[in-house]
Design a protein that fits this description.
Largest sheet: 6 strands, mixed
Oligomer: single chain
Order of helices and strands: EEEHEEHEHHHEHEEEHEHEEHH
Strand order of the largest sheet: 6-7-8-3-9-10
CATH topology of the largest domain: Rossmann fold
Radius of gyration: 20 Å
CATH architecture of the largest domain: 3-Layer(aba) Sandwich
Mean pLDDT: 92
CATH superfamily of the largest domain: P-loop containing nucleotide triphosphate hydrolases
Number of strands: 13
């Protein structure tokens, strides 16, 4: 549904490029986790995908239309929730009435449903809300637009612990086969249960592009104090009970993905991870 084709971008002429000859493809009906170190260009990439930034070279195509053209056919079918934003000091009902008309598939019924996930109501006064509450309201509006593509930059920043739990249920409830959600974050524990695809980027390269099902088929994530087992691990992180281990899944065992382990391993040994997931022999 969306193709990033060899884009290069820098914020100032003569400065180091944030992205250089970077390419990526997104498919419909998936929840992507976009992971990378601070400064890797995750936020920049989301703004380029939405057409709010213009690449120096290359292009972003959304359903065969260049997003740089900012045509209604693309603008009404994608929504970006940035990490930082401002909302006007008006009632939420007024905000919905003013902005929902730009999105043909907006559903007020869905908006009310998503607000209830966050224990909020449509009669809220935007000017009286905390930043965390504003984020909950804005994300509810974004999902209620029912655009085919929803881009979210650090959506759990500013949310309290109950809010982060509510966020996971909120995303799961709004996902459909004709919708794609991209969540860029460094707070991986907040999203590991809602993803079905992982993208890890660094130095203008996609180091990992794989479904969570494929990741768990090839890798085993366990916690153990067994030192001998730790010696065979591809990557380890200390834990209260010993170590979190990422092991080759030789016996086709089931485990839940540990994004912290996977992210650390991918940055530490990108070529080894690429060989495991992207070699021709592993495509089947």
């Amino acid at each position: 549904m969306l193709q990033v084709k060899n884009i290069s971008f820098s914020y100032r002429r003569g400065k180091k490029e944030v992205l250089n000859d970077f390419s990526l493809s997104l498919e419909g009906g998936r929840v992507y986790g976009l992971l990378g170190k601070n400064g890797a260009g995750k936020s920049t990439l989301l703004y380029l995908m939405s057409g709010l930034l213009t690449p120096k070279h290359g292009k972003v195509m959304y359903h065969d239309t260049d997003v740089q053209r900012r045509l209604p056919i693309t603008l009404q079918d994608m929504f970006l929730v940035p990490e930082e934003f401002e909302l006007p000091a008006i009632s939420l009902i007024s905000y919905v009435e003013l902005n929902s008309k730009f999105y043909p598939r907006f559903s007020k019924e869905d908006m009310v449903k998503y607000l209830h996930f966050f224990e909020m109501d449509l009669d809220a006064d935007l000017g009286a809300l905390s930043m965390g509450q504003k984020k909950k309201v804005f994300m509810s509006f974004a999902l209620a637009t029912n655009t085919s593509l929803l881009l979210m930059d650090e959506p759990t920043n500013g949310l309290d612990i109950p809010g982060k739990s509510q966020f996971r249920k909120f995303i799961a409830s709004g996902m459909t086969d004709d919708k794609t959600i991209v969540i860029s974050t460094h707070q991986v524990r907040d999203i590991d249960k809602v993803l079905d695809h992982v993208l890890i980027m660094d130095n203008s390269r996609v180091l990992l592009d794989a479904s969570t099902a494929d990741i768990c088929r090839r890798l085993l994530f366990v916690e153990s104090d067994d030192r001998e087992l730790a010696m065979t691990a591809l990557y380890t992180l200390p834990s209260v009970q010993g170590n979190f281990l990422m092991l080759p899944n030789k016996a086709d065992e089931e485990s839940e993905i540990n994004l912290e382990l996977l992210f650390g391993a991918t940055l530490a040994a990108p070529d080894a991870i690429a060989a495991m997931f992207h070699s021709k022999t592993n495509e089947q």
